[in-house]
Amino acid sequence: MPTDHAVPDDNPFELPRQPSFGSVRIVGMILFLLALGMLFGASLFGFIWIRFAGAHSPARGAIQLPRELWVSTVLVIGVSVALALATARIRQGQVRACRNCLIAALALAAGFLTVQAPALYELLSRHYGLRANGTHLYGLIFVLVLLHALHVVGGMVSLVLVTLRAHRGGFDRTTGTNPIRLTTLYWHFLDVVWLVMFATLLAFR
Q: Is position 17 within any domain?
């Protein structure tokens, strides 16, 4: 059984941080995230265009965003923080602390999806209530939020697999860095996308 002990910052046996482009998998993940970034960027550009050019676009400030989206923002940031801590702990050989951080990240991710459900329902209800007037902006916001939520589901699958492997003793500070870093990198991306998306929705509501 791996032991869990604190390793000082100046411990010579602590693994050095691996370079970002030191692994083929990490490079592949970065390229994948760049492609996803273009998808989300194009979607947000389309939202801004329709917001200003749409014939039936509501007046500025008229769009009401669900309050649950604020809670979602806190939760998705929490996932990134927990995963960053998990990466740091496994590099220091603190296996138990790493597992605890992964569990916390998984719980926060589940909370994110749970909070998103009523927000999506509210957006869809407003879309159906206003589409007769030619207002489809709520439907577009629904699609944007749903698109991000679907990628969160994919991230949760990876997070569940990493967490299960950690509890089975599959990670130590020499083998656990890359799998956890890949998951962390993906969630950092989801975090940034959500923050940019939510800020855009607030700015152009």
A: no
